[in-house]
């Protein structure tokens, strides 16, 4: 009898799980793909158009034959687009047109490798190629930049310094870091170009778990982000004049990383969460049914892995998140990854932030619940000032990190930055 009851309970749990994942897997149809991850990554590539990183027609051509949920189809669609633009760039004589084409080819090749498994043999070559032609693009356009190798224990981090035009010394230095799946090079499109046009110098960097640090050195994320950030700033200041003011901006997961670093490094005068990310554990838990969290408490880890595998088989977004989580966090199981994510919370460090704080958020962010804005603000008891900007659908900035509406958040960001400029 006990055996029968046990089998029935297992079946009940399994049934509840299937119902849960079926319901949470229905996503509102996007502009490019039904699957939110595929739509979002297409929008991410298109988002760079304002900074010479994309053309709408080229992107529409890239995605037209991609089979949704198929990482290989995604790779070849974007790789083909990147190679076409690269071939054209090599033949162009005009240096500006040539540089712009290289930057677009870089973006498409970066996008191509995104959904591939971490151990897919095509991934390293695509990444290396994208980085190489990114710098070709900057060189052809005459964009001044300095590559900096940052000592970090037995490893090294990477940074790129983009000096501003004449008069940039009267403005604060912007330090910019990405997030969960960022690369060092794409930060140029996200903020550097716009900042230079407004007279700012920008220092971008990649830490553990990001870009080439992850791919070349197999170094995963750390919740103690003040450590890599300190290494970057120490190395930079050892060979460059100290700026009058310094503002740290973190994109996506950087919405946790930047505030965490600022809490322990008072050389920053301001910090920007673009967008808010107060508690990564809460974000991760929202992607799984409650039954999974219950099973975790009961230590049914093998069953969890089995159910995660089932969910991954029909949800490209979920599948990518599971694989990328293990890769970047250096964990062996989904349960370990979830536990690792819970370490990325500002609950105990937010009160240590004494700088001026700017928080961005979106009403329809598919990653981060809007409540985290107020959660974060309540803990900022010692901040010099706290400003929050929330975008809704009507504004055009309701997506995570305001993808598709760069001009919107940048206008608010640069207005906020005026408080740090010399009069």
Automatic annotation (TrEMBL):
InterPro entries: AB_hydrolase_1 (IPR000073), AB_hydrolase_fold (IPR029058), FrsA_esterase (IPR050261). GO terms for molecular function: hydrolase activity. Residues 172-385 form the AB hydrolase-1 domain. The keyword Ribonucleoprotein does not apply. Keywords: Hydrolase. The keyword Hydrolase applies. Belongs to the AB hydrolase superfamily. FUS2 hydrolase family. This is Alpha/beta fold hydrolase. It comes from Leptospira koniambonensis. The lineage of its organism: Bacteria, Pseudomonadati, Spirochaetota, Spirochaetia, Leptospirales.
